[in-house]
Design a protein that fits this description.
- This protein has 527 residues and is mainly alpha-helical.
- It is 41% helix and 5% strand.
- It has helices spanning 34-40, 43-51, 61-69, 84-91, 101-127, 132-156, 179-196, 214-227, 231-243, 294-297, 321-326, 332-337, 381-387, 404-417, 421-436, 451-465, 472-479, 491-495, 511-516; strands spanning 74-77, 271-274, 278-279, 290-291, 316-319, 338-340, 372-374, 400-403.
- The protein folds into 3 domains: 10-193 and 507-516, Alpha Horseshoe (Serine Threonine Protein Phosphatase 5, Tetratricopeptide repeat); 213-246 and 404-479, Serine Threonine Protein Phosphatase 5, Tetratricopeptide repeat (Alpha Horseshoe), CATH 1.25.40.900; 271-398, no CATH class.
- It contains 19 helices and 8 strands.
- Helix 5 (101-127) packs antiparallel against helix 6 (132-156) and helix 6 (132-156) packs antiparallel against helix 7.
């Protein structure tokens, strides 16, 4: 992406303040003349949306709390006193304050991007733009608004639907909209995005890796229909992404989690949408070349005490003992996803660098505070040397928000649910074949024998393929039958032992937003 981070100066037009609802969607006056904006199209306003992703908590640390810490495979990590409230609210489903940094930042940051999208779309309408570049910008704005509302509807259910630029503070005070209305807006936005976004980032020009494409719109759209169990739409959208010919599984699973010293995210053939970074040589002493992201820093290995050679980050989002125990050791992805304190990292074949981790120590005295770590954010020692960021910071690996493996497994699931076992089997096998890495003694082919048998196989495959990536909690919730029945791996059965109750499918709204609405916004049930 062409030096997207200097565009941070534009975020003033979209800031959400934590002081509340009356300010979080206010639109500032347009700067410059209309002629200036026409010649510049909508680029600066669109860059605002991208600029929120690398460092806003709502798309990094708080995102991890909502997406990953709530499942059975990940826990908060770090040490016990660091963000202790996350242990109760996200790990144990109790003690909700409804007014903490994780909740507030998640809500505020997503509405900040919605604000930026609304502003850009209002400008486009005001200027009546129709040139190809502006139409792409409209597609980007519609995608971002749909993405944020999909995140919000998954986590909170009914939320205020603000799909216009707010000119007066009182315009931002809205009651919650029905879930169906939120999805209608998402469908409308993604329909526009799929029409206007380019097939490849090359259509933006040279150096714009990471900008949105038609494949990203269709993949996100398929995800939304997966949650609504509209299997036919999932199949059609996934087939469109596959048929575009733009994406392939990378041959080696471990290659997904690497970023070399060129300073940019890897943008592999499997990447449909990922947050970009630009981290140059000697970044530790030259801030001009350090345009990284919080994503890797907040999850990398944490070591305290006098010796901190392994103090590479904040140590959040760590594997649970439950994941370690349930994962078959013959699956190569297990040791490609989990790092073990006190053990050899497995070398290049397992995504390691030939190093041995310090031993586990609850006090961090000479050791590190967790038995297991997320290997998908394991930082390359060569990059630490290249950047000069030797400890405490690993910020060059961007978040891969959408990847091609999900398209294949969504197609497998939807095909199975519509009685097409052959397509389900074939797409499941594509994922397993890549994972076995040529070793046919592991991860044997799973033939279709029944819909229920294939359903369980696909559910299990999603768990192993996407471990620590923030899919599982939402999968467990959407797999829970609407009538309240319990199968072998739905949310009440899996998460119940750690405190989950049906109400926890949704999170409570921030109390500050309810208060500032004058009671117009109502809290979610049972909170």
């Amino acid at each position: 992406m062409k030096r997207i981070y200097w565009i941070l100066i534009f975020t003033a037009v979209a800031l959400i303040t934590v002081t509340g609802c009356k300010k979080f969607l206010t639109r500032e006056p347009l700067s410059g003349s209309l002629d200036d904006l026409k010649s510049g199209k909508l680029e600066s306003q669109v860059y605002v949306m991208y600029s929120h992703l690398p460092w806003d908590w709502g798309f990094n640390l708080s995102w991890i709390d909502f997406h990953s810490i709530r499942d059975d495979d990940a826990e908060k990590g770090s040490n016990q006193t660091d963000g202790a409230e996350v242990n109760t609210e996200f790990d144990q489903f109790v003690g909700y304050t409804k007014n903490d940094w994780a909740l507030n930042s998640y809500w505020n940051d997503h509405y900040a991007v919605i604000t930026a999208a609304n502003n850009a779309l209002a400008t486009a309408k005001e200027l009546n733009v129709s040139d190809p570049g502006s139409l792409r910008n409209i597609g980007e704005a519609c995608f971002f608004r749909a993405y944020c509302y999909f995140e919000l509807v998954k986590d909170f259910g009914e939320v205020p639907l603000i799909n216009y630029a707010v000119l007066k503070p009182e315009d931002a005070i809205r009651a919650k909209s029905p879930i169906d209305s939120i999805y209608m807006q998402i469908d409308s936005d993604l329909n526009v995005a799929a029409q206007y976004l380019p097939l490849t980032t090359a259509e933006y020009g040279v150096g714009f890796d990471g900008r949105l494409t038609k494949g990203a719109a269709n993949t996100l759209w398929a995800q939304t229909y997966l949650f609504r169990k509209n299997w036919a739409r999932v199949i059609g959208l996934c087939q469109e992404v596959i048929g575009s010919g733009q994406y392939l599984l990378v041959p080696n699973f471990t290659d997904l989690w690497k970023a070399g010293p060129n300073g940019f995210g890897h943008n592999t053939t499997e990447s449909i949408w990922e947050v970009q970074t630009s981290v140059g040589q000697n970044a530790a002493t030259n801030s001009a070349v350090d345009n990284g992201t919080m994503w890797q820093t907040c999850q990398s290995i944490r070591q305290g005490g006098a010796s901190n050679d392994w103090n590479l980050g904040w140590g959040w989002n760590t594997p649970t003992q439950h994941l370690v125990d349930e994962w078959d050791a013959t699956d190569p992805r297990k040791n490609q996803t989990i790092l073990y304190s006190g053990q050899y990292d497995g070398g290049p074949a397992e995504g390691g660098y030939g190093r041995t981790l310090p031993p586990y120590s609850a006090s961090e005295s000479g050791g590190i505070a967790r038995k297991y770590w997320n290997k998908k954010v394991y930082s390359d020692p060569a990059m630490h040397e290249f950047t000069g960021q030797l400890t405490g910071n690993a910020d060059w690996l961007g978040h891969r928000i959408l990847r091609y493996a999900d398209v294949l497994l969504m197609l497998a699931e939807a095909s199975n649910e519509t009685g097409d076992g052959a397509t389900a089997e074939a797409n499941l096998e594509l994922i397993r074949a890549r994972a076995r890495g040529g070793n046919n003694a592991v991860l044997p082919h799973i033939p279709f024998t029944s819909q229920e048998q294939m359903r369980v196989a696909i559910k299990n495959e999603r768990r192993w393929e996407f471990a620590m990536e923030g899919y599982r909690f939402y999968d467990l919730v959407r797999w829970t039958p609407a009538a309240g029945g319990i199968d072998t791996i739905d949310a009440p059965r899996v998460l119940g032992p750690i405190g989950y109750q049906p109400k926890n499918a949704l999170y409570p709204l921030p109390q500050q937003v309810i208060d500032l609405s004058g009671g117009l916004l109502k809290q979610n049930p049972d909170y």
